[in-house]
Amino acid sequence: MSEFDRRSVQNFDWVFFLLIAILLTFGLINLMSAAAAGVEGGTSNVVRRHMLVMGAAVVVMLLTASIDYRHAERFAPLIFIGSLLLLGLTLILGEVTRGAQAWLLSGGSFQPSEFSKVALV
């Protein structure tokens, strides 16, 4: 194991990871309960899709946790400006959903405000 890998494992916040795993498990149990009560698309489709998204989120979390945040500092101004541009684009091209113009359509749909939260941190 390289020195970078050892430091990543040693400094990893395992308690935080365990708490996230517990929250994900409770969320999955609640979804299964709601799906059994008649959510559209059947129980297995909804739960399977949610588990896929959960797995992808855990992978992204682990990859992000393994990167030293100081390497991203030099890109902070670009990330911030990019998030501002996306927010401005939302005002111009944003899709109105339930009275809020918060979504951009690009293949799928996403909320630029979610990226802006990360950019501000």
Summarize the entry for a quick read.
The protein is mostly helical and 121 residues long. It contains 6 helices and 3 strands.
Structural summary, described in words:
- The model has no long low-confidence stretch (mean pLDDT 81).
- The protein has two domains: 65 residues, no CATH class; 48 residues, no CATH class.
- The protein is mostly helical.
- The protein has six helices and three strands; from the N terminus they run H-H-H-H-H-E-E-E-H.
- A three-stranded antiparallel sheet has the order 1-2-3.
Report the major sheet.
Answer: 3 strands, antiparallel
Radius of gyration: 19 Å
Number of helices: 6
Q: State the helicity in percent bands.
A: over 70%
Average pLDDT for all residues: 81
> What share of residues are in beta strands?
5-15%
Structural class category: mainly alpha
Query: Element order, helices and strands?
Result: HHHHHEEEH
Number-wise, the strands total 3
Uncertain runs are: none
Span between N and C termini?
31 Å
Number of domains: 2
- Physical arrangement of strands within the biggest beta sheet: 1-2-3
**Shape label:** flat
Give the tags.
121 residues, mainly alpha, 2 domains, 6 helices, 3 strands, flat
